[in-house]
Amino acid sequence: MYSYPLSSRILLAIDCIIFGFDGKDIKLLLIKRNFDPEKGNWSLMGGFLKEEEDLEAGAGRILYDLTGLKNVYVEQLEVFGKVSRDPAERTVSVVFFALIQIDEHDAEAVKSHNAAWISLDKRPKLIFDHDQMVDRAIEHLRYKAALHPIGFELLPGNFTIPQLQKLYEAIYSTPLDRRNFSRKLLSTGLLIDTGYKNTNSATKKAALYKLDTLRYKEKFHAFWNFMPDAMKMKQT
Amino acid sequence: MYSYPLSSRILLAIDCIIFGFDGKDIKLLLIKRNFDPEKGNWSLMGGFLKEEEDLEAGAGRILYDLTGLKNVYVEQLEVFGKVSRDPAERTVSVVFFALIQIDEHDAEAVKSHNAAWISLDKRPKLIFDHDQMVDRAIEHLRYKAALHPIGFELLPGNFTIPQLQKLYEAIYSTPLDRRNFSRKLLSTGLLIDTGYKNTNSATKKAALYKLDTLRYKEKFHAFWNFMPDAMKMKQT
DNA sequence: ATTAATTGTGTCAAGAATACACCATAGATT
DNA sequence: AATCTATGGTGTATTCTTGACACAATTAAT
Fold it and tell me: Does A138 lie at the interface with B, CB-CB under 8 angstroms?
């Protein structure tokens, strides 16, 4: 069997950007490193790809270690491969983008990793090029959520339309019209009315919906249109 | 300075998917390997990331080697990282997606690499997981061209609206209405009428347009809407 | 009962997308 | 030089979607 010349083997890192939503703000799961290198500084959760491990499995492992969750929404975001991005050694990092339901994570695991959920507007400076990674992820979240029904990944199984609206308002930092939002959402046919009401509310209880998962899978790659108008191409 | 434990350094490959358009069909630049491994079989153009080379620079180097072109449209597509994707050795491959003007490539370089422009519907079986990479790239081309003005990257500097239409028809394998297409294109404000006419045509000569590059850069990340309707989300 | 906060739904007007028809130009044919 | 044919350029009516906006219903607190 052929073998490649002995050159250019490189340390391959995996870094995970993990978004959650607490009902009000989009949050990031970050760790305050209690290990070297860069001990004491904030960073994304990461690790190295193992020799006998598929790339996606590596991402799954790292996500599971920190959150205790499997089968969360994950996708590749981008590879960061500048020569000097890690001063210790040439390291290429594959960045993964994950959306989780914030109240389902394993608080013990998060604590043991010295991790915390942090609002986007309060995020600390991160090590290496992790700030760029986060910037890129926020951009991607805005982009993708405008076109595909990924918002649901951040909400519990049953949710109300006002909750969904708050989520989109948080993503785009912009108020949305209740009536138009509701009409658009319902017209996708992705929501099923559970018949239950949200008992938490102090006033009128909103209807609880769930995802029509069959339809969701069918229609995932089709286009949606939730991007606020200001971000669309205008003819000016 | 900290150093990482001696483990999990991995061979990092770069593979390039290069699209062109000959006025009729979308074509891929593929190589018939005259070197090992997999000598004699078809594959994407690729190479290994060098120790002292930024990732994007590596992609640029490989594209330049094959086409003689610099500053072409390139973006990261996806990382392929299954353990057994390359039987010779664990290799993780970062796949890049490139669009070039087919008539500007360096024919000598292409020849010396034993490469050829091949229509999508005539593509041979490729080595390893390169077929999956191409499938993914075609999907991405359709996706991206529907939302962003990347089609121009496949056409010469001056082009006619009918040429542009043929390009989109090739990308989506579907006929488009001339009148609506033209109106939509012109309404983007991205086209500047050069005042010249296409002299190649046998009958009425079409107007030659060029990109308004300033506007193009400004508006690149805004959304467009050239996806044929059938691919959009419908409510049914 | 009244009030305040929140949820649910309807309507109208403007804009965009689609389907479709007519005219213009240029070279080839007679 | 008249006309035929292939292709390019533009206009319009209809339908659908979007955005702005108003009013009614529900619930708990007073």
Answer: no
